[in-house]
Design a protein that fits this description.
Elements (H helix, E strand, L loop, with lengths): L1 H11 L4 E5 L7 H18 L2 E5 L3 H4 L4 E6 L2 E7 L12
């Protein structure tokens, strides 16, 4: 619940850039997917740029752009030409 409250507080300010460190990490599967969908919708509707930092490789499939970092160095930077809708992501 604390994580959801923190996300809601951040969104209340209508930011242009939203930094999310493991936004689904402490959430159950259903709530995690709801949070991802909300972040996706926010970006599409309000033009908010959302940076999601995660170890969950499945989430990357929904991103427009994926930057992989290893040992503090950028390993790859790729545009996702065909993002998977959040509702189709499984982990």
């Amino acid at each position: 619940e604390q994580q959801r409250v923190a996300i809601a507080r951040a969104l209340a300010k209508n930011p242009k850039l939203l930094l999310c460190d493991e936004p689904t990490g402490a959430l159950d599967y259903r709530t995690g997917k709801a949070v991802l969908q909300m972040l996706y919708d926010l970006g599409r509707k309000d033009g908010t740029t959302t940076l999601v930092i995660t170890h969950n490789q499945a989430i990357a499939r929904a991103a427009d752009r994926v930057i992989r970092i290893r040992s503090g160095q950028i390993e790859s930077d790729e545009r996702n030409q065909d993002p998977v809708p959040v509702e189709k992501i499984e982990w």
